[in-house]
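Researcher: Re-running this chain for the archive, since the previous output was lost when a drive failed. Same request as before.
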Amino acid sequence: MGAGGWNWNDAWIFVSAVIAERLERDRALHAALPVTGATLADVLAAADFLHHSVPERAELEESVRRLAGAGLITVEDDLIQVAPPGEQLWRTRPFSGLSSAVMTLQAQLNRLAEPGDADWSLDEQSYNAAVREYSLRLADGR
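Model: Regenerated structure tokens:
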């Protein structure tokens, strides 16, 4: 647990949500589709890219609840978006590249915000479906 109550997993999931949402936004804009947010599979893909592992269901659920409860992300119909305060946090972080972005964000979180506790849960079936979707993308080379 960090000094301000945030832990490494919270920062990992936050940075993953930022990356996933930006990639999804770019895809939607290039295809002239509405921007809807990142899916759980998108967030898992970004998390794996950052840390070479996929968060466990409980880790993902806890961090999303804490981040959403603090107003940094929103979750609706299992689509995750970075909320304006989260966008501000991301834009004002000391730039250090992606290799140390998680540690940098954990320090920023501990200085600027307290974790919250949103009323959101991730059931095993939804988590497994997101993992399956991500696994299929890997197999297809996407």
